[in-house]
Amino acid sequence: DAAAIFPEQRKDEFGAIAKALREMNDSLAAAERTRKQLMSDVAHELKTPLMIIQGELELAHETGAPLSPAKQASLLDEVLRLSRLVHDVLDLSRLEAGMMELHPRTENLVVLLEDVTAKTRFMAEDKHIQLSVHAEEENIPVSVEKSRILQALYNILSNAIYYTNPGGQIRLHAETVHLPDRQQPYACIRVEDNGVGIPEADLPHIFNRFYRADHSRARPSGGTGLGLAIAQQNIVAHQGWIEVESEVGRGSVFKVYLPM
Ligand code: ADP
């Protein structure tokens, strides 16, 4: 009968076990697909900078001509990009595999915002971008692993600086919110810039690893395309989520929600 062929259809505990086993199998297969996709994406991303470095060095070796200072600088740029990439890929693959254990402690979100602003202020000042922090409360306690949330906020804020023209403005805002569809309160951080904005067609994809909207090719020394994927994984690991609103030519708003 059907139950013998499809044990999951049995109404007893064997049916339940069969179903649980199949679900386990499905999620293992999905994890394996993710891993393979990551491998092939990474290989693809490593190829270009490696080809550039190899090409320049081979040419210099064959002709015996010394590398000009400009060439040296651009090769160094590629090497730095490679090392950022390797570092980010390791972080992301650990995060995606759920291998990073969380060690949460109670932190004041306002202090974390000030930390991350202090770390990025020089980049903003270089571009004459005004960077301001507003917190609705003096203390917004969240149970988080500090370094992971700082990493997420750093990635979002450094993007805001990269994708905002000189003379622009970036505002960080933090508050406690009560969402209609949630019982407990959430801490909400907004990072608002009046930069280049993100085309609507790109918005659904920007949290995907290695996804870059077209304008970002102009980003100095090239981003890795992993910053937002890492930020999102870190936030989701804390049972939070991230949202974005953006308009080309007007700017972007990234919102991060964390349970309190
Ligand atoms: P990247 O290393 O390219 O910055 P990210 O994962 O950090 O990679 O971001 C993905 C893409 O999202 C970027 O390439 C850029 O196109 C877009 N993006 C992210 N933040 C902003 C922002 N504040 N303003 C405009 N575009 C942004």
TrEMBL record:
GO cellular component, one term: plasma membrane
Source lineage: Bacteria, Bacillati, Bacillota, Bacilli, Bacillales
Part of the full-length chain shown: 184 to 443 of 443
Protein EC: 2.7.13.3
Protein name as annotated: histidine kinase
Histidine kinase domain: residues covered: 41-260
Organism whose genome encodes this protein: Brevibacillus borstelensis AK1
Domain HAMP stretches: 1-33
GO MF, one annotated term: ATP binding
Subcellular compartments: Cell membrane
Keywords: ATP-binding, Cell membrane, Kinase, Membrane, Nucleotide-binding, Phosphoprotein, Transferase, Transmembrane, Transmembrane helix, Two-component regulatory system
